[in-house]
Amino acid sequence: MGHPATQRIVLITGASRGIGAETARILAARGDHVIINYREKLKRAETLADEINAAGGSASTAGADISDATSARTLIETITKEFGRLDVLILNASGGLERNAAPDYAMSINRDAQTRLVELAVPHLPDGSRIVFVTSHQAHFHGRKPVPAEYEPIAASKRAGENALRAMIPTLAAHGITLHTVSGDMIDGTIIVQLLERRNPDAVAARRTHGTLPTVAEFATAVADATTSPTESGDTTYVGGPDYLAAHAH
After folding, report:
1. Which of 4, 104, 132, 159 could form a disulfide with 142 if both were Cys (CB 3.0 to 4.6 A apart)?
2. Is the Cβ–Cβ distance between 245 and 184 less than 8 Å?
3. pLDDT, tens only, 191-233
4. How far is 73 from 120, CA to CA, in rounded Å?
5. Does the predicted model carry a pTM greater than 0.85?
């Protein structure tokens, strides 16, 4: 398929549903070609791509388990072979609350998979391109704010992932690539909040006492905006959670 040089090629990991899917819809409506990465939900990813294309947007799908090194390498190779480059990498996929996950899975998916994907993508990201890391306040402020016990492995591993990505900023800068983090309070209706609500309803209820939780649409818009906003590498956009931000303005 032909893609004009002016059309950005955007890869969104874990994009078959939720925040990733909504971000794909928004960016496609703004004129980008979005690549919807999924691990297992082929049908869901294809339905989303069909919906975007039918609405006049441009989307394709790419199956890969980013926590698997071979699968991640194949993902980047396949994209660059087809499109010649990658302009935006949105690191949205995460995990760790899965019922039968191995003890090291959270760190594997939330830290190791993120840095490996960036390392694989860097040679194909042109000057001026952007990497967006999607995280939560519980992870971003890990160690400074209490975290529900059930979410601790995710919070610790996503914070480790963010630290590892931030350590790569000098390397990214040498290639003209900027890193932007988008951190959100618990997002209403996401699978993580649904899982947490089942295991620890009080933790979610406690967040609601601080104000209305951001919606998927609000958070996805912030993620989409982070792909174009004029910003210093390492900057963070915060969505919701005023109590977090009051004490930590920076």
Report:
1. 159
2. no
3. 777 877 888 788 788 888 887 888 999 999 999 999 999 989 9
4. 7
5. yes
